[in-house]
Specification:
8 strands, eight-stranded mixed sheet, globular, alpha+beta, 29% helix
């Protein structure tokens, strides 16, 4: 499905595919927060292509280039939970993350009964936290030791 465009090129959400997962996982594993957590490309590739009941998993394509991935748990505390949003460095700061959040919010509103959208971002990931706050999310809690001992995750919420 098309969720927007960048410089006149369509931005797509498509089902994960084995052919592009390697490039995506290699690139994301080298970036924060995954590099700090020492999450290897193989582990990321497994996560990005895993079949989990109820989870929505998409790769983000811009034209004919894989740009990132998004994973959503559609039912979590009266609204969806954005479990994963990662964009390769070359595709950041082009409005794609905002497009994904707009798509998520539109879907949540259409479903009805949702009161919130939830996200967690690593406490040390100041740029991600600033991005989500800029999109109308508020930090509501610090949850220690979720991903790894010694690291906190910030729970963010957007009220619908």
């Amino acid at each position: 499905m098309v969720i927007g465009s960048v410089a006149g090129v369509d931005v797509w959400l498509v089902d994960p595919d084995e052919g592009s997962v390697g490039v995506l996982a290699d690139g994301l594993a080298a970036m924060e927060p995954w590099s700090r957590y020492q999450t290897g490309a193989k582990q990321l590739a497994g996560f990005l292509c895993a079949e989990v009941p109820g989870a929505q998993r998409y790769f983000i394509w811009v034209g004919n280039c894989v740009a990132g991935a998004v994973v959503v748990q559609p039912i979590w505390l009266r609204g969806p939970y954005l479990q994963f949003l990662g964009l390769l460095g070359a595709w950041q700061k082009r409005g794609i993350g905002r497009m994904v959040l707009d798509w998520l919010e539109s879907g949540a509103r259409l479903q009805g009964g949702n009161r919130h959208i939830w996200i967690m971002a690593s406490e040390f990931n100041a740029s991600a936290r600033a991005f989500y706050i800029g999109q109308g999310y508020e930090e509501v809690a610090l949850v220690p030791d979720v991903v790894e001992d010694g690291f906190g995750e910030v729970l963010l919420r957007k009220r619908l």
